[in-house]
Amino acid sequence: MQELNYLRCGDYYIPDIRLEKPNIRLGKWGRMRREYLRLAHPVLFSELVLSEKLYEHCAKIESTAESRMEIIVPQLMKHYGVVEKLKASNQLEWVRQMNSCVAQAEEAIRLYYHRILILDWFCAIIRLKLVWRDWNVERTYILRHLYFAKRYAN
Fold first, then answer.
1. pLDDT of 97 strictly over 90
2. Which of 23, 25, 53, 68 is the most exposed place for a label (fewest CB within 10 A)?
3. What is the pLDDT of residues 7-27, one digit of tens each?
4. 3-state DSSP call for residue 26?
5. Is 45 left (phi over 0), alpha (psi -120 to 50) or beta?
6. From what superkingdom does this record's organism come (predicted)?
7. Could you read off the pLDDT of 109-119 as tens digits, one per residue?
């Protein structure tokens, strides 16, 4: 364990903590995961930052998502019949269908990684439901919150 140094600011001593930022470039999925943790799970986010494991965690999510994209997109191309023959005959149609396949794959991966948000909302609502049952609160209020949880998860 390294020795902790302090900086003097006025009458106070503040720990001189410097976190190393690893040489990891986060892509789309890693940045989305970092923002999700920052907004939805601030305690876990702080824990990962202070243990210097945030970028490793986000890089792992990034690589997993990219590998899933490499698997899902060719399967969708095969399913919809997006082949090189179509590319040679009608390039714009091929581009349109490829964009559709990529968008569907991205949506599937995004829902896979952000289903946690829906589950968090649902668990919070169940906990509230148990409390509210004791208070005889209308159940429509719970259903309304569940609707908004699903709506904002997208």
1. yes
2. 23
3. 888 888 888 877 676 788 899
4. coil
5. alpha
6. Bacteria
7. 888 876 655 55
Q: Does residue 55 surpass a pLDDT of 80?
A: yes
Instruction: Give the chain's length.
Output: 154
- CB-CB contact of 58 with 31 (8 Å): yes
Question: Helix, strand or coil for residue 7?
Answer: strand
Q: Which pLDDT value is given to residue 73?
A: 93
* H or E stretch covering 141: helix 139-153
Q: Report the chain's terminal Cα–Cα distance, integer Å.
A: 43
Quote the pTM value.
Answer: 0.61
Looking at residue 135, what is its pLDDT?
Answer: 46
Q: How far apart are CA 6 and CA 103, in angstroms?
A: 50
Contact in structure between 88 and 77 (CB atoms under 8 Å): no
Give CA–CA dist 64/23, Å, rounded: 19
**Domain spans of the chain?**
6-153
Q: Are 72 and 100 in contact (CB under 8 A)?
A: no
Structure tokens at 12: 């106070």
